[in-house]
Amino acid sequence: MKALLLNGKNEWKTMKVEEIDSPTPKKGEVLVKIHAAGLNPVDYKTATNGNPHWHYPHILGLDAAGTIHAVGEGVTGWKTGDRVVYHGDFNKPGAYAEYGVTTAHTISRIPDTVSFEEAAALPTAGYTAYQALFRKLPMSSIETILIHGGAGGVGGFGIQLAKATGKTVISTASAHNHEYVRSLGADYVIDYSKEDVKARVMEVTNGRGVDAVLDTVSRDSATSSLDMIAYNGHIAHIAGAPDYTHIKPFSKVISYHEVALNAIHHNQDEKAERDLAKIGDELLSLVAEKKISPLVERVIKMEEVPQTLLELSERHVKGKIVAKIQ
Ligand SMILES: NC(=O)c1ccc[n+]([C@@H]2O[C@H](COP(=O)([O-])OP(=O)(O)OC[C@H]3O[C@@H](n4cnc5c(N)ncnc54)[C@H](OP(=O)(O)O)[C@@H]3O)[C@@H](O)[C@H]2O)c1
Questions:
Q1: pLDDT in tens, the chain (326 residues)
Q2: For a tag site, which of 110, 210, 211, 249 has the least CB within 10 Å?
Q3: Strand partners, 170
Q4: From atom 4 of ligand 1, which residue's Cα is the shortest distance away?
Q5: How far is the C-alpha of 317 from the C-alpha of 62, rounded, in Å?
Q6: Ligand 1 site, CB within 6 A
Q7: For residue 87, what are the β-bridge partners?
């Protein structure tokens, strides 16, 4: 099969499409003929740092959509030709390849009206936003939420999902993305590079602060967000835990929620693994019903993945970019 091969630690900028043997599904796994693969910051991050579980050449890419080509021993409920999407384990060979293997209990069925490119945009960013909002934050008690990085993948799904449940959504983005972020459902958008974010959040919430923050930016961003949270509020963080040493006990009583989507694959907790498939099903239904956008801004070729990851590493890409594999 053709695959984009990473030949060593931090060599992702020079990856090339080459021939390599196709994988074989083991017990409980499926072999998927991959049609589209979503790009994510985790690709260049893991490739830069390397991973002791990898054997080079390694294949990057976590978000794959395609058709089942073969099922391994013991797999029930799935057959050749089924259209599926999955979030892969970053310890294993990934999605920038014509074929990929994954565990059958973590895959979701793609409705006929949803394209492979749309489905491939969902897993890493969409499942993370979904998990933060509906598995971590107590959404029934939240009225206002600050979602940082509204123009990015996780932020974009987060805004749409929070808005769909009737929350007041405040987001941050560069000025040229404000219209886009509003179109996703944000009620207020703050230009983090020019405005005083805390002052604006306090103004918008009449001095109270927000019930919850979803931080998609950094440890610093998560730390400064603590001062924008109302009493008994929450923060879900995906890009660095906040330093809460300045928050005194018996003061704001903030709850802290870590989201680390890929860790699901590494904990041998089958309940959590099966939940990936449920989250995928739910997001695919929302896309099929046109209740949320899959955020696909651009479809590229597999050969263009390295230069596009370089663009992603500059951290100003809007929405999602997907590679068409075959
Ligand atoms: N823990 C997990 O499970 C998990 C899962 C998924 C992703 N992540 C991590 O979460 C982060 C976000 O991922 P992503 O897929 O959404 O893509 P991303 O590439 O980080 O998002 C790009 C967006 O970030 C915005 N941005 C950059 N700096 C910002 C700042 N200081 N304040 C507000 N917005 C800012 C940019 O908006 P403007 O161009 O408008 O400035 C751009 O649209 C990444 O670091 C990723 O690795 C973690």
A1: 999 999 999 999 999 999 999 999 999 999 999 999 999 999 999 999 999 999 999 999 999 999 999 999 999 999 999 999 999 999 999 999 999 999 999 999 999 999 999 999 999 999 999 999 999 999 999 999 999 999 999 999 999 999 999 999 999 999 999 999 999 999 999 999 999 999 999 999 999 999 999 999 999 999 999 999 999 999 999 999 999 999 999 999 999 999 999 999 999 999 999 999 999 999 999 999 999 999 999 999 999 999 999 999 999 999 999 999 99
A2: 249
A3: 146, 188
A4: 238
A5: 18
A6: 40-42, 45, 124-125, 128, 148-149, 151-155, 172-174, 177, 192, 216-217, 221, 238-239, 259-261, 312, 315-318
A7: 63
